[in-house]
Specification:
Elements: E1 8-9, E2 33-40, E3 44-52, H1 63-67, E4 70-72, E5 75-79, E6 85-88, H2 90-103, H3 111-124, E7 136-145, E8 157-167, E9 178-182, H4 200-204, H5 207-215, E10 220-222, E11 239-244, E12 247-251, H6 261-272, E13 277-280, H7 284-292, E14 296-303, E15 307-316, E16 319-322, H8 330-344, E17 354-357
Parallel strand pairs: 1-3, 9-10, 9-15, 12-13
Antiparallel strand pairs: 2-3, 2-8, 4-7, 5-6, 5-7, 6-17, 7-8, 11-12, 11-14, 14-15, 15-16
The structure holds 2-OXO-4-methylpentanoic acid.
Length: 360
Amino acid sequence: MVQPLGIKFEESLTKKIKPPQDQLGFGVYFTDHMYIIDYAFEKGWHQPRIVPYQPIVLDPAAKIFHYGQSIFEGLKAYKTEDGRILLFRPQKNIERLNRSNDRLNIPQLDESVFFDALKQLISVDQDWIPTEPGTSLYIRPFVFATQPALGLSPSTNYQFIIIMSPVGAYYPEGVNPVKIFVEPEYVRAVIGGVGEAKTAGNYAAALKSQESAKEKGYTQVLWLDGVHRKYIEEVGSMNVFFKINGTVHTPSLNGSILDGITRNSIIQLLKHWNISIEERTISIEELYEAGKDGFLEEAFGTGTAAVISPIGELNWCDEKLVIKNGRTGELSQRLYEALSGIQKGTMPDPFGWMVEVRVK
Ligand code: COI
């Protein structure tokens, strides 16, 4: 196992020009450096290094290209008004990364390797953390199979890389409500599959539906369960919540949806505010009934990239359901302000979620 602080550092000789903070978009610009560590069956994880951000060279037979052994994470760093650097619940990311690794038969990564990598990389590229409201430094750790071999078996070699990108809002709508298309035909995952792992294939499988939804004027797709095409699962880039008659409902973690860190935080916030929250199976018919009867008060998605994203309209089998007249609900707004306040260090953090990165 690698000793903390054993990371080799090669400094980038050229520094990129940073984009204006009001034009960041999502995942378009990358910082000056990246972190890499290799895995070989006989050596374990070894040779950690921070190098200038650059393309990587892979053998065309590398197993990632053929059998898709690849997982990733997403987390954010924030800079407070007094210059401190805060990470939002990074422990949850390493835990989920290793659960995804386990599901894809990828070797586990030591927590100290993960935290040391994050700390050192953020320290090197700390000037890239944007400070304007609604911005942050998005951190993308990922692992993939590098062994050049076409036999179908787990790779003997992997790389774990971290790249970082200064970001603004994930959706072009910003924090305004998004329109979501309910996918009636294709499914994202089934129980027992890899739906709860953060693996690249889950996202690839969503693209065809996402593109056809976009052609119809919808930003994203809401997935129904893989067996009955009846029960609400997730949006793919976010978990979903519905406020019905005063109670907030969200699909329970059934093994086929992602155990979102923002989802978990929102549930904790709602409980803290004594707002009734239920994790349960929700059918799309039930949701439409609630909408028609006037009981569906708000809907929103949650995710690291998306933060809190109000949902203003659903379309299921050509039937439109407009929620809150297409406007942002009070609860969605309150949750957004509370969560971003905690993350940016402008509001108290009663849950101890924020972890300060002390940089050199
Ligand atoms: C995230 O929210 O961090 C994700 O990984 C979702 C991705 C589609 C941007």
